[in-house]
Structures are given as structure tokens and as C-alpha cells.
Specification:
2 copies of one chain form a homodimer. Chain A has about 170 residues and is mainly α. The first copy, chain A, has 2 domains: about 50 residues, no CATH class; about 120 residues, Arc Repressor Mutant, subunit A (Orthogonal Bundle). Chain A has 7 helices and 3 strands; from the N terminus they run H-H-H-E-H-H-E-E-H-H. A 3-stranded antiparallel β-sheet of chain A has the order 1-3-2. In chain A, helix 1 packs across helix 2 and helix 2 packs across helix 6. The longest helix of chain A is centred in the N-terminal third of the chain and has 25 residues. Chain A starts with 8 loop residues before the first helix and ends with a helix. The N terminus of chain A is likely disordered. Chains A and B meet through helix 1, helix 2, helix 3, helix 6 and helix 7 of A and helix 1, helix 2, helix 3, helix 6 and helix 7 of B. Chain A binds a DNA duplex (30 and 30 nucleotides) through helix 3 and helix 5.
Chain lengths: ~170, ~170
DNA sequence: TCGGATATGTTAGCCATGCTAACGATTAGC
DNA sequence: GCTAATCGTTAGCATGGCTAACATATCCGA
């Protein structure tokens, strides 16, 4: 999936249709952000391989660890994935001993998926490795730059959340 | 792959070992950035599906369009992917008429991969859709927030680039 | 110059992750 | 109670990562 979209102001201008300066800026910022996000995630993803689990499983496991037990449908929705995909991910987590699957007492169609102690440990270790790798990279920054990044992260979350809500 | 690592200050403190406030901040910022990057890319990736090409192909194609013709090895290195993987991606691009593959005159082992006119068009359209989706999301922001995001993107690029160089 | 080492791609085959279609079982609702 | 909706699974397809093993081609040292 690895990427490297070169940032060309020229092509941004072409894309935006040269409408106005504000428009141009948005496109430029969007392009830079996209590239930065790709590079940041590529950097952060490296340590995850050590866990022996794929990204989909780690991600689903994190939902279970931080969000508590979920039915398959809930987990699929949380991960924005279709039910068959999550069915397979859950089976993989169970096979690896990271999650348990129990019947729902009230609705026999449903299943309850929850993280095991081993699952919690594996997730925390993977998370620790990933965040530590990023945090080490951030160690070269001063407090002002850290604050800028934190603010940017919050802006991004807000913007994306608004879009998602509008889309639904 | 979809993710949603919940940000818990408590667990950050646990991860950092409670060494000092600056350490804690780095972990917190790292976690927020990671989450924001995932959500941003998830948002930006949606329009790409319209192109009918997978992300790996689009990404490799962008390298060809913006970086010019490449040998398979060069393209694999640019995408941080092994040769067999890029071999298959290149075959897919050729099959879709987005790239051409020519023999290298000087070294018969090598091949030259380059984007076709159709490839350029398809990439620009996909890129346009993707960046436009992001730019629309950014439309709710004021100039100060845009500037903050741009600065953050530059900081991220700098930090990650330094790490990559150091790792090599 | 020749022959082994190195470099470059390809093929085969594994696994993980996404999807849709089709199905089985269960529950809800009229 | 019968029909329709819901929930999960299975089967099958495509993409995209990997390693191992291979075929060529080039390089380099004896």
C-alpha cells in the first residue's frame, strides 16, 4: 500500500481550477496532509509486525480492549467492515487465543466477542511499540512543535468526524 | 484495516512509565496523531475506489507519473515493497493499460516501467477526487487552522524523514 | 577469458483482508 | 403462527503483502 504522492503546487493549481487563493490553499494543505499521514503511518506500522498479528486483528482487538465486549455486528460497524470480514477476523482472534466468543443469552443469533487476558497483553505490547516508535521520532521536537501537532490532530479529528456524520 | 485506537491518558502514562511530563506529552501526541492519521486516510481513501484500481496500483502509478520511468527494482524500493510484489503490481498496471513495460537496452535483466497517457489521466482523476474530498472537509476551517495543519504536515514530514534517514 | 558470484525479475505458493452472493438460524411483527 | 427482517457463516473472488526457488544476465577475479 506504501505511497509517495509527490507534492506539486502546479498540479494542485490545475486540480483546483485556480479559483481563488483560499481554494488553492485548501488543496495544497490537503495534499501535504495526505502525504504526511501516509508517511507517519508507514513509520508507525513497522513495529506492529512483531506482534504476529495483522493490522485488522490488532485494530479489532483494540476496540474490544478499550470498548468492551461487542457483538459481531457491532464490531464490524466499529471497524467499518462488512460482517463476513469481521466474522473471519473474529475467528482468527479466537484461534490465536486473543478473544473469546460466547453465545448471547437473550438472542441466539448474536455472539459476544471479548478480549482475553492474552489479547489485552498482546494489544498493549503492540500499542506500546507503535506509540513508542512515534514518540521517539517526536523527541526531536520542542514543546511548541508538540503543541502544534496536538492541535493539528484535534483539528483533523474534528473535521473528519463532521464529514462522517454528514455522510451518514 | 480500519482502526480506532481510543486515546486514554491513563494508558499513555502506563506506557511511558511516568518518567516526566515531557515524556508523557510525547506519548499523548503520538497517540492522537496516529489516530488522526488513520481517520484522515480512511476519509481520503473512499474516492479512490471509483478509479477501479487498488491502492497499491494507484500509488505505484503516482510514482511513475510524478517521478518518471523506473525499473522494477527502483519502483519496488520507492514503494518499500519486495520485487515479487511490484512485479505483480506492474503486471496489473500493464494489463489495465496504465503503464508500459520496455526492455532496458543497456542491461537485459532490467525493465523500464512508465505510465501511459491513460495511466496519467486515471491517476490525475483519482488524485483529484481524493484531494478534493479532503479539501472539502477542510473548507470548514479558518485560515489560522489551515496554517496550523500545514505547519503540522511539515513537522511530520521532517520528523519521519529524519527517522528514515537515521534507520538507513 | 572463463567460471563463479552477484544482480534482476519472474513464478509458485502461502497468508491476511476486503468484497458480494447465498444460505441457515432466529427473532420480530402482523 | 406465518412471513419478514436480522444476524452470522460459508463459499468464492480479488488485491496485496511475503519467502523460496528459479532463470537470465552481468560482473569480476583468478
Amino acid at each position: 500500500m506504501r505511497n509517495s504522492f509527490v507534492k506539486l503546487i502546479v498540479s494542485n493549481a490545475k486540480l483546483s481550477g485556480m479559483t481563488c487563493p483560499a481554494e488553492l490553499d485548501r488543496f495544497e494543505v490537503a495534499d501535504k496532509l495526505h502525504s504526511a499521514a501516509i508517511h507517519l503511518l508507514r513509520h508507525a506500522a513497522k513495529p506492529d509486525a512483531q506482534s504476529g498479528q495483522g493490522p485488522a486483528r490488532l485494530s479489532a482487538l483494540s476496540v474490544l480492549v478499550f470498548g468492551g465486549p461487542k457483538t459481531l455486528g457491532e464490531l464490524a460497524a466499529a471497524e467499518r467492515v462488512k460482517a463476513p470480514t469481521m466474522s473471519r477476523i473474529a475467528a482468527g482472534l479466537k484461534r490465536a487465543g486473543l478473544a473469546r466468543i460466547q453465545k448471547d443469552g437473550k438472542d441466539a443469533r448474536r455472539i459476544q466477542i471479548s478480549a482475553t487476558a492474552k489479547g489485552e497483553r498482546v494489544l498493549q505490547e503492540a500499542r506500546q511499540r507503535r506509540i513508542r516508535a512515534l514518540a521517539e521520532a517526536l523527541a526531536v521536537l520542542g514543546p511548541g512543535e508538540l503543541t502544534a501537532l496536538q492541535g493539528a490532530a484535534e483539528i483533523i479529528e474534528r473535521v473528519v468526524r463532521e464529514r462522517v456524520i454528514r455522510a451518514n
